[in-house]
Amino acid sequence: MSAERIGRRIAGTPSFAHLRRLTDDTGLLEHALGRIPRRSEGYTTDDNARALWLVTEWLSLREGTLDPATAAMLTELAEIYMAFLLWNQYESGWWHNNVAYDRTPEREEKSGNHDCQGRAIWAAADAWVRLSGALPDTAHIIVQRAMPTLGRIDSRRGQAFAMAACAHMLEADRGGIIRLPGSWQAEMTWHMEQYERLLNDQFRHFTREGWCWFESALTYSNGLVPWAMLRTFRVTGRQETLHNGLDSLSFLLEKMTTEEGWLRPIGNDGWGSPGGVSRWDQQPLEMFKLALALEEAARVAGGVASERQGAATGARAGAVDSPVAAIRIARSSVQWRDMRDLALSWFYGSNDHRAPMCDPADGSCCDGLMKTGPNINCGAESTLSYLMTEALCRPPR
Question: Is 27 part of any domain?
Fold first, then answer.
C-alpha cells in the first residue's frame, strides 16, 4: 500500500476487482498471499455470508452510486454467494462452515458454528428484504429452512445477528416490502424478544463501574452487539434496549479512541478487559463493525429527532420519553456519522502506524495492523470489512 495515500479518501466508488479476484464459480475464497488467492485454504460460509451482505449493501445504495456494469457484476457475485449458502445449508437449517477447494466439506464440531448460523441468517434475510429480481425468492427459501434454528443459537454474536434479522424482517413485513407467511410473524417476534431480554440481562449482569459491556471481555466483532440492540429498538421500542445499545456503543468508542484522536481496534493479542485493552494486532473487521453500530446510532438519533418534532401528535412506543434517555442520545445524527467516518479514515492511514490499509484501486485491504506494520496479505474478511465500511459511509436509498 502506497504511503502517498495516507489519509486520502477517494471521492468515487472503490474498485471491486480484488473481491472478484477472490471469487470463483464456487464462492469467495478465504485467504490470500499478498493479493493472490490461496486456493489450498478453501472457503467458509462465514465469508460468503459476509460477501452476500456486502453486495446487498452496495446494490441498495441510492440510484447512481454504481454504474450499470458494476451493478451487474455485483448482482452476479450475489448469485454466487447465495448459491454457496444454499449449497452448504443442511436440511436441518444449520450451515456447514468450512469447505475445501475441491468442494468437499472440512471436518467441524457436531454442535455447529453458532456465530456462522446467525451471520448466515442475517445475510439471507437482508437479501430477501433488499435485493431485487429473482434472488429474494431464493433468500426466502433459505430463511424458511433456517427458521427451526432461530431459538437454538448459543453464542452472543450469533444471537445478536438472529435478533437483528428478525427485527429486519418484521419491519419489512410491516412496511409491505416482504410478506411473512403463516405464523412467521409471531415466531420471529417471540425469538427477537427472547434474545432482546437475554442481551439486556447480560448487559446488566456484567456492567459495573468502569465496564459497560455484555461480557467480561471485549473480544472480536464488538460493534455487532450494540448495532443489533439499536436495530432491534427500532422495532420493539424498548427503552432499556435503546439505553444499553447506546451505553455499550459509547463505552466501546471510548476504548477504541486514542488520546491523539484516531480510532484503534481492540487488538486480538489479548483483547480487552477491565485491566486494559490490547493494542495489537488490529483487525479491519473491528472498524467495520464499529462503523455499522455508529451508522445505526445515527439512524436512531434521526428517528428520535423526528419523534420529538411530532410529539404533539402523540409518542410512539420507541420515542425517548425521559430526561435520562434524552441525555443518552444527546449526540445528533451528524455527530454519530462524523465518528463513523473516522472508522473509514483508519483504512486510509489514520491509525497507529499512519499506514494505509486499503487500496481503492482494486478494493483490497491488508489483513491486519501489527506492531511491525500492515500485514500485506489481503484476504476475504479484511477486504469485505473495508468495502462494507465504504458503503456505510455513503448516503443510502
Answer: yes
Q: Is residue 324 part of a domain?
A: yes
Q: What is the CATH number of the domain that holds 67?
A: 1.50.10.10
Q: Total structural domains in the chain?
A: 1
Q: How confident is the model at residue 325 (pLDDT cuts 50, 70, 90)?
A: very low
Domain span including residue 231: 3-392
Tell me the per-residue pLDDT of 223-275, one tens digit each, with 9 for 90 and over: 999 999 999 999 999 999 999 999 999 999 999 998 888 899 999 888 888 88
Q: Is 262 left (phi over 0), alpha (psi -120 to 50) or beta?
A: beta
Q: Which residues contact 69 (CB under 8 A, 6 or more apart)?
A: none
* Cβ–Cβ < 8 Å for 210, 174: no
The DSSP result for 109-173, as a single string, is -TT--HHHHHHHHHHHHHHHHH--TTHHHHHHHHHHHHGGGGGG--SHHHHHHHHHHHHHHHHHH
Asked if residue 397 is part of any domain, the answer here is: no
Quote the Cα angle for 345-214-256, to 5°.
25
